[in-house]
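User: Structure with magnesium ion, tokens only please.
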Amino acid sequence: MSSEIILEVTNLAVEFATYGGSVQAVRDVSFNLHKGTTLAIVGESGCGKSVTVQTLLGLIPMPPGRITAGSARLRGAELLGLSADRLNHYRGKRIGMIFQDAMSAMNPTMTIGDQIAETLIVHMGMSAAAARQEVITLLTQVQIPEPERRLRQYPFEFSGGMLQRAMIALSIACQPEVLIADEPTTALDVTIQAQILQLLESLQQSRGLSIILITHDLGVVARMAHEVAVMYAGQIVEQGSVDDIFYRSAHPYTVGLKAAMPGRSAHKSVLQEIPGSPPDLFAPPAGCGFNARCPHVMQLCTSQAPPLFGTSHQARCWLQHAAAPAQALYQQLIASVRS
Amino acid sequence: MLNYILKRLGMGVLTVWFIATATFAAMHLVPGNPLANEKATNAVIRANLERQYGLDQPVLTQYVIYMGNMLKGDFGIAFSEENRSVNDIIRETFPVSATLGLLSLLFATAGGVMWGALTAIYRNRWPDYLIMFLVILGISVPSFVFAGLSQFAILHLNKWTGVSLLPVAGWGSFRAMLVPALVLGLSTMAYLTRLMRSTMLDVANTDYIRTAHAKGLSTTRIFLHHQLRNAILPVITVLGPSIAIITTGGFVVESVFAIPGLGRYFVQSVAQLDYTVIMGTTVFFGAFLVLMVIAVDILYGFIDPRIRVEASR
Ligand SMILES: Nc1ncnc2c1ncn2[C@@H]1O[C@H](COP(=O)(O)OP(=O)(O)O)[C@@H](O)[C@H]1O
Ligand SMILES: [Mg+2]
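Assistant:
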């Protein structure tokens, strides 16, 4: 990837203090977001996707949350550790965010128009009248019919799909460079899902948006992403271009995710799920977090945590070590799963 | 909307009828009658009086007559005071009770919202602990204790300053209304504070407040435009019951502070078994409360867009 880096996250670690001890929700996460591209973060629910991105915008309640390490730079400017006042120069203005459930993410007692206009008034210093005009333009851009009427309505008067469009309009109102979409289509049915994804794609093209798209659906990844980070138990276990991830999968977890993906191999009638469940984040096991579920587990995996191997295509797996005994066997296995 | 209001009013009338009937029955089940005291010196006078007031009729007939008069808006003549109709008593004394009640309600809601919001902002820090301690005190200590204590305090305050800052009892000036209204509103304020605190905290944890932060709004703006408005809605729903608590609490406070309100008559009439005053005040208070609860529900419908928009369809 040659284009310029907009957002650079390095060695991010976040933990939560709870009654049961501290939860290591995000561990040593690094990624780069390039201009005008989409980075997909995939993984099972609870693996730390939302915490990762919400930390960037200071949306994690602290306490109980705590950033224990790392940095996040937007065009070189550090975001982590900023006061709420300083963060507000970025939030909603240079980084927009969309959430999974638009119905609960919108204020139920404020009209859609007012909620969108509010960001314009606060960040762009617009008058109420100018903001209203801009809201109409935005609603038209996200293809909400009859915007003049719709902007006077409340969230409960919108369908889920329409509301997610309004949420998108809200998040791009101040022309942000980065859009973070946290499972934007998970709550929607399939046809609406496709429309929303298409809308995001066209906005990316027309505005040069850089998008972080969180999903647990590899179908969405295949369609939208340029680069992919696969998360497991708070860590990125594999990272690379979309082709690297789908055609040169290097981590057994990614292979498992692909096998669990419906519709990709139509001749295979039974979906394979990955047996077992993610490890306890209170006390991550020694060694690799995936060792208890891994079909290729080796002695080493249970005692020593693997580092990220590779450069542009990275995987956190001992099988990537040059001396891994099962390397050849493993490649065969991948080939058999893929066919 | 109109349909809904009419239905509520119909239910309200039914409730008031039930209150009237139950009060009538309870009153006649209690031994004795309003003439069983020194007024009726011998059997002849007593029989005459009973005839005059219709007490010689069978109870069921009395009930029918009473209900008929009440439908015409006539609550009858008081037993304990000569030539004074219950309607007159209500007309003269209810405005006093209403003023006291309104003042208390204002005080209770304004205080409840303010203190509740404050505890939520200072959650788990000392202002929160202090206010919540006072709240528990306010809820659990009965109002007559506060009434007595406040009179005691006023007395000492006046003595200490050497001028009569506040009257200990009575009615008429705003200065005289202040302390009774505070005392009367105290428990409601405590209750509303607790409610406001919990709704504020609920709202603070919602997704739409997280969205507001993600939009880059200032904390003050989020508090005023998003949090407060949504947190106040549940508080409005309990205004109906709050009015009921303040109204009935008024009976006690009026007695302690010697305020010439309707509540005092209500309490006295029960002690004297004054049939017409008991019935009149009970039915009046009952109808008033039913009306207030309906009014609050309608008001809520206008404030919450989810209900307002549905209703105007
Ligand atoms: N406020 C919190 N307090 C304690 N634990 C939390 C909190 N928020 C998130 N977590 C933990 O962090 C982990 C990652 O959560 P999250 O990022 O929401 O997962 P997902 O990948 O589904 O978005 C979960 O195990 C969750 O239990
Ligand atoms: Mg999530």
